[in-house]
Structure formats: C-alpha cells, structure tokens
Write a structure and sequence with these properties.
The chain has 11 helices and no strands. The protein is mostly helical. The two termini are 25 Å apart. 49% of the residues are buried.
Length: 202
C-alpha cells in the first residue's frame, strides 16, 4: 500500500496547482445541476457537491492557495488524492463520499469509483465495494490495480466462483499483475478469504 505521506505530498502538490478551487467549482456546478434535476438524480448530485466541497476544503488546508485550475485533470486528481489521504487516516466514510463525488463529476474516469470501492471495502461493506469496483473495471478494463481490488472484494463478499474467475483473469494479464494475483491466490489457498468471505453489509 502507498504510504500516507506519499498521498499527502501528492495532494499538497495538486493543491498548489489549484485542485482545491477546481473541486469547489465543480461542487458548485453539481449543486446548480441538482436544483433543476429530476428528483431521482437530485440526491446523487447533492451528495457529489458535498463530497467535492469536502475535498476542496482538505486541499485548501494542504495547499494554502486560491489559485484556480480546471477540474480535470488537476481537480479530479486532487479530489482522489484528498480522498486517499482520508482513507489512509482511517476516515473511510469521508473517503467514500469523496470517491462517489469524483465519480459523479467525472463519470468516464474509474478513479472515483476505485476510491469509493476501497473505502467501502475498508468499512467491511463488501457487496457495495464489489458494485463500485465492478463499475471501475468497466470504465478501464486494463487497470490491473482495479481488477485486483475487484477480485479481492468478490472473494470477501462470499462470491467465490466469480472471485476465482476474476483472479484467473488477473493472473492471465501477465507480469505486471503477478504480485497482486499471487498474494490473493496464496490467501485463497490458505483459507483466509474463505473464512472472511461470508458477505458484508451493503
């Protein structure tokens, strides 16, 4: 796992590049869209606005800057880095909210969904983590890290057959995926995932 200080330094650098202001601008835009959206979309848009405003505050504290940047790529990367800082600090609900907000603001990027999946997994909400990580893998099927997280979440959610298939697919991707696939395979053969994989709270 990436050390927390690495996340913090990345978030601090992106904050200096204007990621906080970019996140706040996108939060304001989502809030405006929520006002005129159908009732079925309002909750997701408002949650997105709240999560990105939260990321903006975290980034502003780290970067001490009012410089503005476009939301993408700096703002999106900044939001995800801020969420990773929260996750590394054990603030899993905050990381989940920021991840879902980033996914709402940039639906064609897997980064927010991957962060949300990691945060849900850390909370023991394995079926919900599977759902988020399935969507992340669908956005970028070549992302080995998302695929490894997805396979792990499936196994912990008690979806043994689907987890084994995902693991085999990960292993087939070759050298880059080998360490992740081997670690999961060892845990599976040792029975660790079988004991834990009884499903979680969605």
């Amino acid at each position: 796992m990436t050390p927390p200080d690495t996340f913090t330094e990345l978030a601090r650098r992106l904050a200096r590049e204007g990621a906080g202001a970019a996140c706040q601008g996108e939060a304001d835009d989502l809030a405006r869209r929520a006002a005129g959206a159908p009732a079925t979309r309002q909750r997701a848009l408002r949650r997105g606005a709240m999560g990105l405003a939260m990321a903006a505050r975290l980034l502003d504290r780290l970067g001490h800057t009012s410089r503005a940047a476009p939301f993408r790529p700096v703002g999106l990367r900044g939001a995800v880095a801020a969420g990773a800082v929260a996750l590394a600090a054990g603030r899993t609900r905050q990381a989940e909210l920021i991840g879902l907000a980033a996914a709402e603001a940039a639906p064609d990027s897997p980064a927010g969904l991957r962060l949300a999946g990691q945060a849900l997994f850390a909370q023991g909400r394995f079926p919900a983590a599977v759902k988020a990580l399935t969507a992340a893998v669908a956005q970028d099927p070549l992302d080995t890290f998302s695929r490894a997280l997805h396979a792990e979440a499936l196994l912990f959610a008690g979806e043994q057959e689907a987890g084994r298939r995902a693991l085999a697919s990960l292993r087939a991707r070759g050298e880059e995926a080998a360490p992740l696939a081997c670690a999961l395979d060892r845990a599976l053969r040792a029975g660790a995932l079988g004991r834990l994989g009884r499903g979680g709270v969605a």
